[in-house]
Amino acid sequence: MPENPTSFASRAGRARGAAFAVEDLHFAYPTGQPVFRSLSLQARAGEFITLVGPSGCGKTTLVNLLSGFLAPGGGRITIDSQPVSPELPALGYVFQSPQLFPWLDVLDNVCFGLRMRRNGDLSACRQKARQFLALVGLEGAAGRHPHQLSGGMQQRVALARALVLEPTLLLMDEPFAALDAITRAGLNDQLLRLAGELGQTVVFITHDVEEAVYLADRVLVLGMAPDGIACELTIDLPRPRSQRATRQHPRYAEACTILMERISAIIASAPGRILGGSGVQAP
Length: 283
Known about the structure:
The chain is α/β, with parallel strands linked by helices.
């Protein structure tokens, strides 16, 4: 599909996101099982990339490599031309579960990273945290504790905690997978709005093909390890996106069908290498 200039390009001119490059990456587990061989990938500033593929293909491993939590066995990863490390201020993370501190209220959970970075005094940290809670619609929940929140609200706190540090590359590992469909759709829309306003580059793992298409400028399909990127698809859908208009767009259904066909071909070609089922949700 050709790229729609109203989608990625219109945002790239004002993007404050980070460009990153993965060059000739090699990685294997301590057991010796290879995960990636000669993987290369580039992302432009402000681009929204989604990763899909069968279980065991290395999606989470790739994000852990991008974050610097794992070190490659060969090759290199750079973010805005700097070697990657977990301490880079460019990086922000949102995980599968919210990972909130149960003894802290919502405001102090969002403040936590700012305080660890010694980014201003406590009053300034809390003021900034309130601003980002407002961005995710939780300004009224600042004094609550995690157990008093729904799953969707907890993930919005986790998102605010990542965004308050103003990362230029946001890494998201199936952050909405455990949520019901209505909450998930709302968070998808909120994420797109925030990414557009703040300009981050986003890498988002999902097993849901429809979610991948709805969010992305570009979808990367990983083959079975150690094959790396089997194919990619540029998503030619206008922005801003909406649940009704976007999902009714003919190119939306076309993109979902193309991706499912390609993932199905990967699964069919290596049935003995699929771990725990396909791990892909069909439309």
